[in-house]
Backbone:
């Protein structure tokens, strides 16, 4: 799968983190003015993601590839994007990006992070990833079940909506 390059407006913080986990390069600015968002999308050849109809229209008029997000829940939004852009809804940690800062995460040994994680985490988990930019450490802990459940629901919804009626 070829990772996509997006620029998300300030209303899409949660969605940004999901897309980064899925391996997509997503720049996110919580309070960037619309004109600057449009210019950044042009300069960096990114697809502008927004829920703002006026921003979507202005971007489109200015030749920016933009996508107007209509879904209400994060699952709805993921389904909408996956179907439109043709990407899967599975996390592959080999291509995942840091949900916080957008840098590609790298596998690290337990030994490298043992002094930076809770002792109980070290006892129960063996696989770790770290962001070389912000230093955030990741592992497939208890939250992983929730992540997988959300993505399973999204995949199911995508399959159901793509079936002929």
Residues:
């Amino acid at each position: 799968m070829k990772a996509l390059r997006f620029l998300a407006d300030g209303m899409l913080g949660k969605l940004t983190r999901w897309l980064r986990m899925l391996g997509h390069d997503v720049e996110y600015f919580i309070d960037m003015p619309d004109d600057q968002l449009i210019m950044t999308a042009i300069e960096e050849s990114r697809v502008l993601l927004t829920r703002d109809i006026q921003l979507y229209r202005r971007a489109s008029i200015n030749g920016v590839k933009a996508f107007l997000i209509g879904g209400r829940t994060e699952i709805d939004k993921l389904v909408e994007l996956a179907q439109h852009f043709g990407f899967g809804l599975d996390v592959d940690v080999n291509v995942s990006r840091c949900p916080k800062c957008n840098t590609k995460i790298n596998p690290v040994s337990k030994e490298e992070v043992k002094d930076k994680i809770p002792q109980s985490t070290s006892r129960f988990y063996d696989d770790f990833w770290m962001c070389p930019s912000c230093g955030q450490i990741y592992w497939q802990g208890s939250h992983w079940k929730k992540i997988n459940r959300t993505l399973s629901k999204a995949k199911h919804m995508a399959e159901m909506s793509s079936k002929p009626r």
Summary: The mean pLDDT is 94.
